[in-house]
Amino acid sequence: MSLPRDDAAALSARWTEGVLLKRDVFSTVERGRFRSDAGEVDAVLRRLDQVPWWSYIPARHLFGRERRALALARDLHVGPELLWAGKQALVRGFINGVALHLAKPHGDVAYFRSAKTALRKLHRVGICHNDLAKEQNWLRGTDGRAYLTDFQLAHCFKTRGRLFRIAAYEDLRHLLKHKRSYAPQALTAKERQILARKSLVASVWLMTGKKVYRAVTRGLFNFTDREGGGRRLVNDAPVLIELIRKNPDVRDVAIVAFADRRSGVGLYAFVEADQAALEARLRNDLTAAKGPRPPEHIQVVQALPRDAAGKPRTEILQLVAMNQLDLIEPMMTSETDRAFLKSILESRKNLRDRFNFEATVPPASTGVSTREGG
Prior knowledge:
Number of strands: 15
Strand order of the largest sheet: 1-2-3-5-4
CATH architecture of the largest domain: 2-Layer Sandwich
Distance between the termini: 14 Å
Number of helices: 11
CATH class of the largest domain: Alpha Beta
C-alpha cells in the first residue's frame, strides 16, 4: 500500500508495512517496523489519507489531539512513544501486549494498581485521556503492567482547573469500572464511592450528548466500534452464528472481526466440526439464506479453545484472525490451547495481510514455531 503523499518522502525509507490493525472513517492504523535513530523497532502507523472526504475535518482534529498528547507524554512510559509525525501520518511505538478485552485480567490486582499509577502520571503532566471506557484503549503488556493507547480524544490542559479535575475524575471512574469487572474484590471503599457518583458533566453527557454522538456516528457515519469490530460484528455476526448452528454437523461456532484492507472490517468464523469439507457447504448455505454477507473466512476446527467455564476463548481467535500471532503465547494457559494453536496455524485462512512477526509456542507434544512472512 502506498504511503500518504504528503509524508511519503520522509516515510518511504523508514517505514515497512505490516499488518492492518484497524480501518474506520477517522483513520487507518497499521502495525509495521520503523527505522528510528536507535535502529529498527516495531511501530504503529496512523494515517489520514484514506478517510472519506466527509469525515476528514473531525479526523484531522482527532489526529492533532493524539499528536499533542503523545508528544507531552513522551517520557512517561505509560503509553506508546511518538516516534515521528507528519502532515497526514504519525508513527508511535508498538506496545508488546494485548487489549484489556483480550487479556481479561481476572483477579489481577497488580495490573489495576499499575493502571492507577499510569493514570496519575498522565494527569500529573496535564493529560486527560477522555476515552478510557473502551477496554481496547487499555493494554496489558507482557510485563504485566497497564498501558494506555489511542489518544485521539485526549486533551492537554495547561492548568489544573475545574474542567481538568472533572476529566481526570471521569478517567479514574472508567478505570474503576474495569476494575469492578475483573477484580471487584480489590475495590476500596473510596473507589466504590467514586463508581457510585458520576460527575455532573458525565450525567448530562449520557442524557444528551451521547445520544447525539451515537446518532451521528452510527447513523450519519455508519460507524460502530464494539471492540474494534464495527457494525458487522454487532449486527451481522449474531445472525450468521444462528444460521451456521442450524447445520447438524456443527457443534459450535465463534465469529470474530479483523481489519480488512478492502472492506474495512472482515468477519472470521471458526466452526467446531469434524468435516473439513463442511466449509464450502456452509458458505453456500449462508449465501442461499440471503441474509448478511457471509464471513470472509470460514475455518473448520476440531475443537475451539475454551476457558474454565467452557466458553470459546475468542481473545485467542481474535489474534489469529488479525495475524497477531506473536501476542498469543502469553495467553496460552494449557497444553490443550497449545495443541489448538498448532492445528489452527496449519490451516488458517487470513493469509493476505501477513508480516514478519515471529510466534514461538512451547510444545504440547511437539514444538510449534512459526515465522510469519509475506
